[in-house]
Amino acid sequence: MGRRLQPSRNVDYLARQLETIWQEIPQHTIRNLYQSMARWVAACIQSWQKRHIHSAYTRCFDRQKMDQRTCIKFCVKNEIKCTDTFRMLTVAYGEATLDRSNVYRWYKMFSKGREDVNDEERAGRPSTSTTDEKINEVEKMILANRQITVREVAEDLNISIGSCHSIFINDLGIRRVAAKFVPKLLNCDQKQHRMNIANEMLDSVRDDPNLLQRVITGDEAGVVHNEFLPQGRTVNKEYYLQVMRNLRQAIRQKRPDLWKNKNWLLHHDNAPAHTSLLVRDFLAKNNTLMMPQPPYSPDLAPCDFFLFPKLKRPMKGRRYATLEEIKTASKEELKRF
């Protein structure tokens, strides 16, 4: 006998949590959600009905077409004239009768010995865009530049965007991933922790109006330090440790008053390289003050919601031939901050 599954002891607790979360949602949000769902369901039903009706009509038309061809074949076998065949089909099928030219064409084919009433397979127009040469060229371009867009590939190879999409997905098995922030649903503890940190930071600003001028994260007075990740490298704890050392030297040169008073604060997110034991020991030994950062909160990291979008906006839509051109353009935009 199989073992009976016992209900989880946490069901009641989870139910209470869900009820609490549901009560926290504003009523107008729930109303808008219901209205959106109703419109979406109605649109889905309407679309399904159109597809269903069109599919039923197509199946019925195909069946009648096959039936009429069978009737034409029967008339040929019984040596009934083509004009009489067309007249009898018109009486039997009315407006759904095949046109005169089709009836004559199939009558002639059956008279020459054809037996099959189905259409012959068509080879179709040969594709000039999805050849082996084009596929190899697309693959080389992608391997050379992983950031290239489908439109750029299509323009360089003089093929349509649809053919380029087909090569990407069907032939190379490649899909494009957007480098965007994906919102994460926080649990109750994470929401409370986020609120506590936000209130703590607000209290700190009220107590010290000049607090933000002492935060090193890309402040309004300009970028303190920037460096580009070498090709083939990843941001691990060893690399980020060297970045912290370079940052301290930059602060000593560009913010001598903050360096002298030792009252500057470092604000970075909770990336694994930032929170590694190696980096935390280095910051602790040098008495570096840290601004708190709640988990999964990129909107509270100025580099994420202010610096990077503002840096990308003027560079968007422009093409760069080399990596050095990208670095040069980035440095020029950083100087404008």
UniProtKB/TrEMBL annotation:
InterPro entries, alphabetized: Mos1_HTH, RNaseH_sf, Transposase-MT_Hybrid, Transposase_1
Domain Mos1 transposase HTH: residue ranges: 66-113
Signal peptide: none
Protein name according to UniProt: Mos1 transposase HTH domain-containing protein
Organism: Cordylochernes scorpioides
